[in-house]
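Chapter review: from sequence to fold.
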Amino acid sequence: MEDKSFENMLQSFKEKDNDTWLMNVMQLNMDCIITIQTQKAKSKLTSVAIIKVLGILLGLLWVWLLGSLGFAAYTVGNIFFALSAYAVMFISIIAIIVYIKHLVLIAQIKESDSITYTQRKLAELQTSTLKITRILFLQMPFYSTWFITPTLLANAGTGWLIVQAAATVLLTFLSVWLYMNISFKNVNKRWFRILFGNSEWTGVTQAIAFMKEIDEFKSAK
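The token string follows.
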């Protein structure tokens, strides 16, 4: 009787050990998956950060060029070129500021951060990317007015004026339409995928997908 009781006790200890071992293995697997997925997300964000830095550097050069040309045009009385250049320059400055903000957001994301914190930062980055893209499209109409001069307007025929007005109105309508429709509700639309088929956008969405996989794995557990 005592031997049987001892065997039962021993078997109970073995079952507990097996359960503990299994739990440790599962936890180890989860930790590995979380680490790998987080590293993948961070790698994508590093690529996005490089694009942002290049965008800032090129943007600064573009702003300097527009400012110089706009000032030169204003001094010689070419008001249309000056206004067009300054409008594009103003929007470009906004984009540079937002890109700097994006770099700060990316720098704040660490592999040791919680999944919830990382997801919140990624969502903020994604939303901000949509917003600045909408704003950038507002500069489209000014690319149809920079070459206009008072002399050209005075000597232009009716046909040219109609074509010029139509082009400016069309670009204005298109820029406003894009501003109104670039949103998360249209992410599956074909035109949206074409506009946002670049590494800057896909890098963020892939990073978000990696973090989502972690959530799904934890929920499945």
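Two observations follow directly from the output. The chain has one domain: 39-220. DSSP finds seven helices and no strands in the chain.
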